[in-house]
Structures are given as C-alpha cells and as structure tokens.
Amino acid sequence: MDALADVIKLLRPATVLLGSMVATGRWGVRVPEQPGPTFYFVTQGRCWFRTSDVEPVELQDGSYVLSAKPLSDSFLSEPNGRTELSDDAFKARHTMDGEIRIGDEGTGPMTRVLGGLIQCDPANADLLIGLLPRLVHVPATEKTAMRLRALVSIILEEAADSRPGRDAVLCRLIEVMLIETLRREAAWAPHAGLLGGLADPQLAQALGHIHADVARGWTVGELARRVGMSRSVFARRFSEAVGVAPVEYLLSWRMALAKDVLLRGRGTLDEIAEAVGYKSASAFSTAFSHRVGCPPSEYASSLQAGRG
Asked: Fewer CB within 10 Å, N- or C-terminus of the chain?
C-alpha cells in the first residue's frame, strides 16, 4: 500500500484558480495571501521569486514552485526590486485577454507565469500542509520539472474546456502533480513528517502496513518485526523521521479516514468504528471527541458552521 498516494487521494485536491501573468521590462508583483497551497510554473522567460521567509530564487522557463503557505509570494524582474500587490483593483487595470500584463511592453524579454491555487477536501486539508515543506523549487533542468511541465500543460488545457468529467480529470491531474512533487522532495532532502518516513525504505514499509490494514491493533513490536528491526530502533527512527510515535501515527490516520467518511454521511457509527479499528461506536466516539474536539455526530455540521 502506498501511504503517500493514500493521503493525496484522501485530500481530493482540486484547482480552483488558474491565472496567467505576462511581464516585460522592470516589474514586480506580490500575490495576495492565499487560503491554500499554490503552485507556479514559469512557461516563458525568467524572473525572481521572493517571499518573506525564503531567500530570493531565480526561476527560468520550465521552473516550478509550490508554496505551502502563500503569505507574500512575489515575482520580480530583479531580486531586490519593489512590488505592487496584485489585488482586485490591480487586476482590473492590468488584465487583458484573460491574463495579467505588467511592466513596460516592448522593453526587454517577456516572462510568463502560470499560477494555480490547490483546494483540498475540508475534512483533512491540514494533512497537505503537514506534508509540504514551506517551499518546493524544482529547477527547469531537473527531469521532474519536465514531467511537471507536461502535467501543468494538460491541467491548463482541461481547465479551459468544459468537456464531461472535467472536474474529475482535474482532480486526478492535481493528485499526480502533488505526488510527483512530494516524492521528489522525499528523495532530495529529509523532512519531518510522512515524507521523512517515506524516505526510509523500512519505515515506508511500516507505513504501508498501517495504511493497508488501519483497523488492525498494530503494536510497535509487530511493526518492527514486519520490517526487520528491533523494537527500540524502529520506535526511535520512526519518531525521528515522522515526528510522532508509530501508534500515534496510526491513531491520527484513523481519525483522518473517519472524518472523511463522516463528512460524506456514509455509514453508521458502528460501521465507521469497525472500519477504523474500534470495538464499539462508544469507544470510537470517545476517541474522536478527544482528538477532534466534537462528537462524530456533530462533526460535519460543526465543520460547515466553522466555514460559514
């Protein structure tokens, strides 16, 4: 069982905004704070990407950026230039033929940047933030960037069309894009969390066991034996890499699955409890209330009220 694919599938990611910006000459634009992770792809030219907590990064045609918490993402013609907020008034002044056009037309090379906001299922949207490093930059020279370019091209084409199944196709494409990005990160650099676990073959195997049979009463000793490690070494390595103990990860994953089912109104409490490893609806309700902050019977309505 692929733990990363499980999590991404549970998120049901979709893109709710795709926009394009064209810039020439000297320019700088700051993206408004976004409610979710945002990806950017440079489809022409070159520019600099800057945000409040990351050093400026030079991007070129084919570069990809995934920003986990877009608070002050900026694109500029030079790293230390000034920026203007791309708010509604800015967009009204600069939008032409469906894209934002800025800078001094005809005074230098053209840069084009495509952007998309990723919106996840509200039940477990926080899982994606937990997965993502603050910023992912995939240089144009990497093989992953070439694969992402092909995906973004199809996403753009699909978003502009209205063929049957459009939303489902977009959801699958965004899933693939996220998996490509995250498995690249797991291979390139250590990250605390699920990516940290997946970077270790033995821990990835243990995570796979948990995801394949979430209702099982897994113990640290049993998981350790399954992956050929001593109990103490396994517990330490898992906690260091994933950031929580193995049993804590199991309980968190159970709650993520339960929240998803509850939000969709599928199954009785007894059925949900059995599916995620609890012996009774009352035991499940107690555990759910402790972790989520409200009883399962109130979860969907409380989530909707909180977002209203």
From this structure: C
